[in-house]
Amino acid sequence: MSGKEGKPPDLRRIVMELLLDRSDYPTRRFGEAVQRAGLEARDRSLARQLLGGVLRRAVQLDAIYAPYCKKRVTDEASCWALRLGTLQLFFLSNVPEHAAVHATIQGARPFLRERTGFVHAVLRNLQRKAKAEDPYSTEFARRRLTVGRRSWWFDRPIFDDPAKFPIEYHAQQQSYPVGLVRRWFDELGESTALARMQALSEVPPVWIRVNLLRTTREVVATALRGAGVELEESEHPRFLLARRIGRELSSLPGYAEGHWAVQDLTSFEAVELAAPQPGDRVLDLCAAPGGKSFAIAELLQGNATILACDTDAGRLARIEPEAQRLGHSIATHCLDAEAFEYPQGEFDLIVLDVPCTNTGVLHKRPEARARFHKDELHRATTVQNLIRKAVQKQYLAPDGARPRVLWTTCSLEPEENEQMAARIAKQADYRVAAERRFEPDGLRAGGYAAILEPLPLDEASA
């Protein structure tokens, strides 16, 4: 993608294209899109801000512009253009007001067409009716928006009354879908739910897993600090916590040598719960991009046979070069997404890091924040049940090898976690030997893991 007559590429148009293309998560496609477009570093940084901002703040942005629309906006392109403009008007101090409106309209015009005038009118109305306050105020009012050390007073209410509609109010303030906030309030209670929401709204640090087969944590820490990385040592002996990096990961010392990799502590501790044993034959069925396979290889010092599988050929292809970088021997196999037929053979451990709603990693996957809905949960559990049933039929039959099973997700929803593990146990004559729900805390991601083992023959059902 390039501008006409030598003009630079329109970064807002690129962002709109990413938001409207449903082929994959926008944040996954971002790097390739901006590289193909030839965006300069400064424009690339702003494009990343815009994409992440509208995805993360979608619910709150909708609350701000909606009172200025005569009826609910359902057209997808209009929604994203309004969010994009609203984000720049109030949340990005580095974007001038005129650019927030004019540049957004220019970038979104090819997707809006006859709706261009409507979107432009709403954004201009927002710009006129929101009055900046000096001094700024942090006191809540339904007509006030406070962002950092800036605040605006609107000519009409934009937020719900917290006394009458507490769930809707908190959903708007922290930008979560109302349905998800209601679920968490019902399950956890208000204080715990709000703590979870706050933890998943913070910018996550980077967890660095040290490859102890090649180096030590001390060597990695010294090298990274020497490169200007702001590090903390973790209580886990294999991990370091990077607060500030400031450059591309691949340019840091030790990366090319395979001394370390990025992996959230929750993902690694899910593997530890499975307690893989030396010599295990491991089948990782939803493996891409390979983090859990690599973790098993390092825990067992390479003494395991690991077959990593996935239906996404592109993401699966990333495993081999990463395994070579880290010095691991891992075979790969691309699965048919429709057939649910898996590799033949006997295995000691099956890892099922199944597709899920991602509610434990909303700080890392902002797409999932606005996407969550009961229909999305149903879709995720439907896929999980198809995977679960295929695995039970092929590997967990009473006359088979009966491997241990690690069921794990980056979700916090019981339907995807405890209930699925219990279903495997009941239907396959297994038992949940151990399980853990990982609660996000601002440092680590949320998620779930359960290790299931076959019941002894004398305890299995007839």
Mean pLDDT: 94
* Sheet having the most strands: 7 strands, mixed
Which band does the percent of strand residues land in?
15-25%
Domain module count: 4
The gyration radius over C-alpha positions equals: 24 Å
Percentage of residues assigned to helices: 40-55%
CATH class wording of the largest domain: Alpha Beta
Distance between the termini: 63 Å
**CATH-derived architecture of the largest domain:** 3-Layer(aba) Sandwich
Number of helices: 18
Short description:
The protein is an alpha/beta fold. The chain has helices at 11-20, 26-37, 41-56, 58-65, 76-90, 97-112, 116-129, 166-174, 178-188, 190-199, 217-226, 265-274, 291-299, 313-316, 319-326, 366-371, 374-395, 418-428, and strands at residues 131-132, 144-147, 150-153, 206-210, 230-233, 239-244, 260-262, 281-284, 305-310, 331-334, 349-353, 404-409, 430-438, 447-454. A hairpin with a 2-residue loop joins strand 2 and strand 3 (150-153).
Q: What do you see in this structure?
A:
There is one protein chain. With 462 residues, this protein is α/β, with parallel strands linked by helices. The chain folds into four domains: 4-159, N-utilizing Substance Protein B Homolog, Chain A; 162-199, no CATH class; 206-262, Sun protein, domain 3 (Alpha-Beta Plaits); 265-454, 3-Layer(aba) Sandwich (Rossmann fold). The protein contains 18 helices and 14 strands. The protein has helices at 11-20, 26-37, 41-56, 58-65, 76-90, 97-112, 116-129, 166-174, 178-188, 190-199, 217-226, 265-274, 291-299, 313-316, 319-326, 366-371, 374-395, 418-428, and strands spanning 131-132, 144-147, 150-153, 206-210, 230-233, 239-244, 260-262, 281-284, 305-310, 331-334, 349-353, 404-409, 430-438, 447-454. The strands form three sheets. It has a seven-stranded mixed beta sheet, sandwiched between helices. β13 and β14 form a beta hairpin. α2 (26-37) packs antiparallel against α3, α4 (58-65) packs across α5 (76-90) and α4 (58-65) packs across α8 (166-174). The longest helix is centred in the last third of the chain and has 22 residues, at 374-395. The radius of gyration is 24 Å and the shape is globular. Mean pLDDT is 94; it is low at 1-5.
